[in-house]
């Protein structure tokens, strides 16, 4: 982290970089806890089919080194006897809760700040992750579904609260690279849940280890979060005067700790750019959540990868996605600095790459047959290009309204993540036998949704600050002026 000299001679760490680093870790931990079950469930419950070659009844799955004739010899007996529909419910139940608390979380973050809103949510998420093995073993799938719903409730405020903090701390000219740093934490979390999860399960010989390790790490991170993070530069006791003055000049937002914001619901509900953002978020979430929750199952049930190979290769697309996100963040900031491109043009260009690239990649993977190298390469390149959504789609709510970024992100996330509720369940219904042909239909559906929603964003999306955001700034300043006048009148002698 860069150090700056304050006029009084002391060194200060620039606190917006501290916030960005801690925010990166928040997203990484949240996604690890959210999706580690996607890999663990492949070692908890067996797939429903027992054939390895093409036949009229089941379709195509690839042979593996343990296959003889038409029968698969599995290495071990699975602990739970859950069919594909039950597994789909377990995987999607997180999003049932996640949908519910995004709106309240965003409103609380806008009104009272994102620090406590995010921190308390991550506390309950970490505790829920730690107790997952006990609940699954002692009380069965129904109780696990309820627990995952609760973890979803806890993580609902994650994006809205983080967006509100960034709106108060990150100037628009730094939003590409610092926004990419923070939101790329999601890709690092995906990688950790897949790759570290695979190693933990392989070398501890237990699927329970991923939940204990990732849950405890979340508790450890929280101790630093509550000490180091503050809602607004004006409230931070460790910030240098130089950085505070710079941020106050560069960012014109209302301090949430003052509690003076009134949310313009009608203006938000009738805003075409807001609806453009909501629609493209639906498409993005459908494609992303389908791959995150179900790629490990495809790798194992169709391509026949072992748990370690599954973890490594399922995580590979997210490594590339993270690298693309970080690189494109710097490109976006450079394009803005050049003043040759508008914010709207940049956002639409990078959102389009993030939609078309994955659509082509996952369809290509579905036609790669049993060529494992080609399948992994197609998934990796296609999903890697989705990384351009970080400095575009993920920061667009901050573009439209810095003052209401938490509420706006909550609205967008709530409606968008309905995809996370529906997609795993739909996939479970579409792939009862986990054959290659069934999965191809799944990937075609995801590609169609990605392309269609992107076209609507090109029509209605924007990168400009909306008028109803500026109205809040005027009201806030007028309120301060009135308070000063009242104070003056009290102090004046009669």
TrEMBL record:
InterPro entries: MFS, MFS_dom, MFS_Na/Anion_cotransporter, MFS_trans_sf
Domain Major facilitator superfamily (MFS) profile: 18-465
Example of a GO biological process term: monoatomic anion transport
Pfam families according to UniProt: MFS_1
A single Gene Ontology CC term: membrane
Keyword Transport: yes
Sequence intervals crossing the membrane: 21-41, 116-139, 145-166, 178-198, 210-230, 315-337, 349-367, 373-393, 405-430, 442-461
Predominant location category: membrane
PANTHER family (alphabetical): AT30085P-RELATED, SOLUTE CARRIER FAMILY 17
Entry protein name: Major facilitator superfamily (MFS) profile domain-containing protein
Provenance organism: Acyrthosiphon pisum
């Amino acid at each position: 982290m860069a150090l700056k000299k304050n006029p009084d001679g002391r060194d200060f760490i620039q606190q917006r970089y501290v916030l960005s680093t801690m925010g990166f870790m928040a997203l990484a931990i949240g996604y690890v806890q959210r999706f580690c079950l996607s890999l663990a469930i492949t070692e908890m419950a067996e797939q429903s089919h027992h054939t390895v070659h093409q036949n009229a009844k089941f379709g195509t799955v690839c042979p593996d080194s343990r296959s003889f004739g038409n029968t698969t010899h599995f290495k071990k007996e699975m602990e739970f006897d859950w069919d594909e529909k039950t597994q789909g419910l377990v995987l999607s139940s997180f999003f049932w809760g996640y949908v519910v608390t995004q709106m309240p979380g965003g409103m609380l973050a806008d009104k009272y700040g994102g620090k406590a809103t995010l921190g308390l949510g991550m506390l309950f998420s970490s505790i829920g992750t730690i107790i997952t093995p006990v609940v699954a073993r002692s009380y069965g799938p129904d109780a696990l579904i309820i627990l995952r719903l609760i973890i979803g409730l806890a993580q609902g405020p994650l994006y809205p609260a983080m967006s509100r903090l960034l709106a108060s701390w990150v100037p628009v000219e730094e939003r590409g690279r610092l926004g990419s740093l923070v939101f790329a934490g999601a890709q690092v979390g995906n990688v950790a849940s897949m790759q570290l999860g695979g190693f933990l399960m392989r070398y501890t010989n237990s699927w329970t280890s991923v939940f204990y390790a990732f849950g405890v790490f979340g508790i450890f991170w929280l101790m630093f979060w509550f000490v180091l993070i503050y809602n607004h530069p004006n409230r931070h006791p460790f910030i240098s005067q130089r950085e505070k003055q710079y941020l106050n000049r560069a960012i014109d937002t209302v301090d949430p700790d003052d509690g003076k914001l009134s949310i313009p619901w009608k203006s938000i509900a009738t805003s075409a750019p807001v609806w453009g953002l909501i629609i493209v978020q639906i498409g993005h979430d459908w494609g992303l959540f389908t791959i995150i929750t179900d790629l490990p199952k495809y790798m194992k049930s169709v391509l026949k990868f072992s748990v370690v190979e599954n973890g490594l290769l399922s995580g590979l697309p997210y490594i590339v996605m993270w690298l693309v996100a970080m690189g494109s963040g710097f490109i976006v900031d450079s394009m803005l600095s050049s003043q040759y491109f508008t914010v709207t043009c940049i956002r639409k260009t990078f959102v389009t790459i993030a939609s078309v690239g994955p659509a082509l990649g996952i369809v290509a993977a579905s036609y790669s047959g049993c060529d494992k190298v080609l399948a992994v390469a197609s998934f990796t390149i296609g999903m890697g290009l989705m990384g351009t959504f970080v400095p575009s789609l993920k920061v667009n709510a901050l573009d439209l309204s810095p003052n209401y970024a938490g509420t706006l992100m909550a609205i967008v996330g709530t409606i968008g993540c309905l995809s996370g509720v529906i997609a795993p369940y739909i996939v479970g219904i579409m792939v009862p036998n986990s054959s290659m042909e069934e999965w191809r239909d799944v990937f075609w559906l995801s590609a169609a949704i990605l392309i269609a929603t992107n076209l609507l964003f090109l029509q209605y999306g924007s990168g400009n600050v909306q008028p109803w955001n500026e109205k809040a700034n005027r009201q806030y300043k007028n309120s301060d002026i009135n308070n000063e006048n009242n104070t003056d009148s009290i102090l004046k002698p009669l």
